[in-house]
Write a structure and sequence with these properties.
The chain contains 2 helices and 10 strands, in the order αββββββββαββ. With about 230 residues, the chain is mostly beta strands. It has one domain: Sortase, Chain: A (Beta Barrel).
Length: about 230
């Protein structure tokens, strides 16, 4: 997979306003059994086999009771096990996938830092819990034949939840408010709108996808999922 965003898109951010980033930190992110088929003697003798009582016994006398259906008690379904506790320094994506966060900076050359593997997400933009601006998490859709958790962004829906737990163990809850595929050649003009440090605080999840065109572009589109804080 190639770069998640073009250098032009990131350069637009750098030129817009003071993009808040902190750098360098790599987040480290858990009795004897009863005999079977016992034979019980028939109290009516062998003649009961053809439905006739023994000689001298009135019809119906000592006839065996009609069999009754066994009584069964429904077993209530087991309670589902709670999901495992989310570890610090991770994001739980809309459909439950987890990725490890790596805090990174946008380079002065306009190059967006990308994760080293599919299980990681670079974390840049404003801090979690900021009053305004975008916190951006960018991850690979796939890498060297392995599909990553950010692939599920292509199936994300408005109303789904996203949870980020920072390195101190504090949890931040968000709800998806917008899902949009944006062509990479159209992204520079929208970079400030989507990823900039102004406007209401939001979490923006980004990955690649769409048609593979190769070269410096890689995939033709970015999938951009925006989520707003849950009060």
């Amino acid at each position: 997979m190639k770069a998640l965003l073009t250098g032009a898109a990131v350069a637009a951010l750098l030129a817009s306003a003071a993009l808040v980033v902190t750098g360098g930190e790599r987040v480290v992110l858990a009795g004897a059994p009863a005999p079977a088929d016992a034979v019980v003697p028939n109290p009516l003798g062998d003649s009961a086999r053809d439905g006739r009582p023994p000689a001298g016994m009135p019809a119906g006398a000592n006839a065996p009771a009609s069999p009754t259906a066994p009584t069964t008690t429904a077993t209530p379904p087991a309670e589902p096990a709670p999901p495992p506790r989310q570890q610090p320094g991770t994001v739980r994506l809309p459909q439950g996938g987890l990725a490890t966060l790596v805090r990174a900076e946008v380079g002065t050359d306009g190059v967006l830092p990308v994760p080293e593997g599919v299980g990681e997400a670079t974390w840049w933009g404003v801090d979690l819990g900021a009053a305004e601006g975008a916190t951006v998490l960018a991850g690979h859709v796939n890498w060297k034949g392995v599909t990553g958790p950010f692939d599920e962004l292509w199936r994300a829906r408005v109303g789904q939840d996203v949870t980020v737990v920072d390195t101190a163990g504090k949890s931040f809850a968000y709800r998806v408010s917008a899902v949009e595929a944006v062509r990479k050649d159209a992204l520079p003009g929208r970079a400030v709108e989507l990823f900039g440090p102004r406007g209401g605080h939001r979490l923006v999840l980004v990955t690649c996808g769409g048609r593979w065109v190769g070269g410096a572009t890689g995939y033709e589109e970015n999938q951009v999922v925006t989520a707003t804080p849950v009060a």
